[in-house]
Amino acid sequence: MPERPYNLNPGPAILPLEVMEQAQKELLSFRGKGLSILEISHRSKDYEAVNLEAQQDLKDLFGLPAGYKAIFLGGGASLQFGMIPMNFLAGGAADYVNTGEWAKKAIKEAKRFGTVNVAGSAEDKNFSYIPALPSLKLSPSAKYVHITTNETISGTRWNAFPDTGAVPLFADMSSEIGSRVIDPKRFALIYAGAQKNLGPAGVTLVIIREDLLSKCPDNIVTVLNYKTQVEKDSLYNTPPVFAIYILGLVLKWLKKQGGLKGIEAINNEKARLLYEVIDATGFYRGTAARADRSTMNVTFRLKTEELEAKFLEESKKAGFVGLKGHRSVGGCRASIYNAFPLTGVKDLVAFMKKFESANS
Ligand code: PMP
Q1: E strand or H helix at 191, and its extent?
Q2: Span from the CA of 76 to the centroid of ligand 1 (angstroms)
């Protein structure tokens, strides 16, 4: 087998090697039972344990207080763009902050169900910053406020969250879930496609404050109703069991890294090292405003597109894959999610320095 390259893909993305090794080891016989997790009922005791353990590990990791529930859904984060307004907008108005391509997609879907008030936008500067909290035009009568805490494409991140008072705050955390300590009580609903920081594609994590469920209408599609999913413990229909199983292994790995506090310290150090080389001489140029830089998706450019193409080609040869920026913005992007090792960042920094001295 060829040596595994350093994986900087934006998602689906790197998984902890030990998680994949464990999944490989127990693929044919789950927990010594003789059958694979892939071929047993989602209503079996064995799967029930996977489901409950993952919920408990999430509670432990995020410090979820009573009254919050974690559920596992299909359809990706994109389905949440529609499920949220379907359940909670119902002809009313909601505040959305337009921080990037993902926020925009959430806004587009919400408009199908009610009025969207864009409470702030960073579109004037190519989504390179997060609007300042005091500039947000939040409305006290909004059904909810929706933010995207980390914009995967432009590489920006919210460092402080708006105080929305009695209005519930909803957050798409797809590209940073579990990468730093957050206070879950600030949020009424958090969602994230698992395929960046929590596991493989196919499962979406939703953390929801249960008092919201009384607002879910009865006349929507049963499986798209949060009330159904919470009441049935994510087992109303057949869930993506394998993806949830891997997510469970990733949560246990995360606990071993010292939980969110432990991984946040490592993530901060990784991002610091990378931005340091980007800021050093002007050869590389970070595209996100410094105060709002993501620690997960580090976006940067070189002087010309030709030089960027050369950088991408040589980086691949040197063993780094996935550094190409999103097709909508170009440039380069290093996605250094939780499972990307500190040693990998150190090696990437060394490569970037070498490339710089050979090309400046
Ligand atoms: N939100 C954010 C912030 C994302 O980065 C992505 C995917 N890259 C999505 C939503 C859409 O996720 P999915 O493909 O799981 O629908």
Answers
A1: strand 189-193
A2: 7
